[in-house]
Amino acid sequence: MASPGGWLWPNVSEQDGAMKAIKGASQAAFIVSGITALVAVIALVGGKPVAGFEGWALVDAILMAVAGWRITKHSRAWAVVALVYWTGASVARVLSVSAVGAFGVVTIIILLAFVGGVRGTFALHKLRNGTAAREVSSPPR
Question: What is the per-residue pLDDT for 5?
Answer without folding.
Answer: 60
